[in-house]
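Good morning N.,

You mentioned wanting to compare the apo and holo forms, so I went ahead and generated the holo version with uracil. This is what I fed in:
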Amino acid sequence: MKSAYTAVQLLTKKRDGAALEPAEIRWLIDAFTQGVVTDYQMSAFAMAVLLRGMTEHETAALTLAMRDSGRRAHLRSARGPKLDKHSTGGVGDKVSICLAPLVAACGARVPMISGRGLGHTGGTLDKLEAIPGFSVNQSLTRFERLVKNYGFALIGQTRDLAPADRKLYALRDVTATVESIPLITASILSKKLAEDLDGLVLDVKVGRGAFMKTLPEARALARSIVKVGTAAGVKVSALLTRMDAPLGRTVGNALETAEAFEVLLGGGADDLVECTLALGAEMLCLGGLAKTPTQARRMLEAAIASGRAADMLEDLIAAQGGDRRVVREPDRLPRAPHRVVVTAPRSGRVQDLDAMAIAQVALRLGAGRTRADQQIDPRVGIVLLKKPGNAVRKGEALAQLHTTTAQAARRELPNVLAAYRLGTAAPKLAPLVIERIAR
Ligand code: URA
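and this is what came out, ligand included:
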């Protein structure tokens, strides 16, 4: 049968600034998924979109075509609203690991499909894989069963979920076409819509440790995802949250996993708890499980206080092959052989802590990867004993490095110290949540 379009015809139309019709976009994505449209043609398409932009209508068509390029989860038989959260990625962001069981403990279903870290931002899958035996590789059928039986699941993207996004993202990564709001919108939403959700909350990180460095960029991405997601029939809202300093007190995979467990047991750094509760409250309100954010926060706090959320995480860890004891006995997580303390050169208050500088230290220690095929070391990282606003005495510990060799610790010690700015005045700390964007 003769094809309705040719790739060159559609590329020319987009290159010259015209808007593509939904049928044209669907043809292009289907043909790309099947290998009829080549990688070099699709790379040219990505560049044309980056330079020319897309209308909201085109972005929605691209999102739905990418969602439909593979299988979709079917969670209709699971009780409760199906809710998820997506973060644009930050330093020390381990929120998904405590948020999913917490929201599930309040009556929602949380079908959470996460990604791996690349570059300076960490990935939830890498953090989860620090748990001995835990497998993030589950089939879509098993994923559906886990969500139904345990209220949530924590897995990686399966091969058959939004395959067009996986193919296109690999091309964007090497053709300088990642930074396009329509392409990011379609990439994030196609995977999330394939999870069969009722509601999605976005955590758009803003600041020097984030993908979006400025407020206008973060707002534009949040607005685009909220509009397109809502048009696709899902309730979507976004919180813009600050990412200038790392979130919580740890950066590095096993260390971060242990810190997420701590939140479920009633502890955790103030900013991490605040981020978790703010996103959780947003999810419960979107799903109709709470009428107000205040009521939602009370529900979340009760799920922590009763131990119910921690119990649910233990059950899920066991169901996904892991050692359930790690939640209440985090010393069972892998530990680095060397620990070196970074001390304060003078007394004062921490004015600032550079998330990007700390992320670079973690990357060099082996906690992250600069290429998708690199191995990571789950044991290494940094514990930030002092954060902005904290007082410190000369000689007191600011941070602790967890490393594989004493040499690595010695090499990175000055870099951790340089990430801290000490002063005498009490710094004015801006609130973590900057603003909320909804339809
Ligand atoms: N995360 C995604 O999943 N896709 C993008 O395009 C950017 C961030």
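The longest strand covers residues 199-206.

Happy to go through it together on a call whenever suits you.

Best,
F.
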